[in-house]
Amino acid sequence: MTVESTAARKPRRSAGSKRTAAKKPPGAQPDLVQLLTPEGKRVKNGEFDAYVADITPEELRGLYRDMVLTRRFDAEATALQRQGELGLWASLLGQEAAQIGSGRATREDDYVFPTYREHGVAWCRGVDPANLLGMFRGVNNGGWDPNSNNFHLYTIVIGSQTLHATGYAMGVAKDGADSAVIAYFGDGASSQGDVAESFTFSAVYNAPVVFFCQNNQWAISEPTERQTRVPLYQRAQGYGFPGVRVDGNDVLACLAVTKWALERARRGEGPTLVEAYTYRMGAHTTSDDPTKYRADEEREAWEAKDPILRLRTYLEASNHADEGFFAELETESEALGKRVREVVRAMPDPDRFAIFENVYADGHALVDEERAQFAAYQASFADEGEGK
Ligand SMILES: Cc1ncc(C[n+]2csc(CCOP(=O)(O)OP(=O)(O)O)c2C)c(N)n1
Ligand SMILES: [Mg+2]
């Protein structure tokens, strides 16, 4: 498969979907780059094998460990929300391979622009998972220094980070650096104007940016069929850069395809769209109840394609990992869960007025006014208390 043929590939239509965007049957598999089947079998790929050809058993175990620890951390965060320790949590359950594969493909000097769900990518960038929870607990606006790990703060305004990434990438090119930028976004975000503008700008300025779309099939309660009439990766063709669809539950394929796309960016060949075809196994966030809008069979069909299970099968079948490795990892997982729980519970409440700091470097009259209003509002409670 060449880059050109990838971009020019025809949309696949499921039976009976000639004019209307009919929903695919559960488990339907579109054309995609896959190196590890759901059954854990390594399959050859003429174009992308080269990007993982020298991967060692130790590195394979590392990818497995990353996915397991990320899933464990994510489960702990969901539990913490249920116990009232967090206001909200956006789970990545099911998307571990897309995030670990692409995250491990990045170089230290690359810059990453996430959404609010990229806990696995944060892990790969070296951000302490406990620090991801401050915003969800409502005690800070981020919790880490973006420039320490070249990992931007989480972005809730859907799609806006693709513009930030494009601008940053244009700057990287102007600096003459050979680092690359990667922007994460979802299938729902693909409908945002910001994403369309990012595609146009990055294409015409040949910006070194990879657009990594995790098509997890749902944008809250809206299925992908409501976002597009063509496979999402084909959008790239209209902007003049390549798009490729990868099995988002295959960590090896995600690693290989993202490496390829980042290398294109480094060589000055401009943007790439990667559509990681995956599934959001849990709710959109802890505020959502997916049983209201999707069938259990759909989730069950995707359970059979679990990203962690398939790598475990492969590791065991190829004798790359023994029982000792899995047992040790289990212990490490439990320790991570415990530590995260302790750190979160100990997070101090912020000073109420801290929100007015750092809005402008040198302050602003409007912020001063708002601070004064807030102070008066707070004081009004004190008066009430005294009056009683
Ligand atoms: C500009 C904007 N519009 C609407 C929302 C509300 N919103 C939050 S998440 C979401 C769905 C996003 O879906 P998708 O891009 O597929 O990402 P996913 O949550 O599935 O990872 C919406 C509409 C928002 N945060 N920002
Ligand atoms: Mg989505």
From TrEMBL:
<feature type="compositionally biased region" description="Basic residues">
    <location>
        <begin position="9"/>
        <end position="22"/>
    </location>
</feature>
<feature type="region of interest" description="Disordered">
    <location>
        <begin position="1"/>
        <end position="32"/>
    </location>
</feature>
<keyword id="KW-0670">Pyruvate</keyword>
<protein>
    <submittedName>
        <fullName>Pyruvate dehydrogenase E1 component subunit alpha</fullName>
    </submittedName>
</protein>
<keyword id="KW-0786">Thiamine pyrophosphate</keyword>
<dbReference type="InterPro" id="IPR050771">
    <property type="entry name" value="Alpha-ketoacid_DH_E1_comp"/>
</dbReference>
<dbReference type="GO" id="GO:0016624">
    <property type="term" value="F:oxidoreductase activity, acting on the aldehyde or oxo group of donors, disulfide as acceptor"/>
</dbReference>
<dbReference type="Pfam" id="PF00676">
    <property type="entry name" value="E1_dh"/>
</dbReference>
<keyword id="KW-0560">Oxidoreductase</keyword>
<feature type="domain" description="Dehydrogenase E1 component">
    <location>
        <begin position="65"/>
        <end position="343"/>
    </location>
</feature>
<dbReference type="GO" id="GO:0009083">
    <property type="term" value="P:branched-chain amino acid catabolic process"/>
</dbReference>
<dbReference type="InterPro" id="IPR001017">
    <property type="entry name" value="DH_E1"/>
</dbReference>
<dbReference type="GO" id="GO:0000287">
    <property type="term" value="F:magnesium ion binding"/>
</dbReference>
<dbReference type="InterPro" id="IPR017596">
    <property type="entry name" value="PdhA/BkdA"/>
</dbReference>
<dbReference type="InterPro" id="IPR029061">
    <property type="entry name" value="THDP-binding"/>
</dbReference>
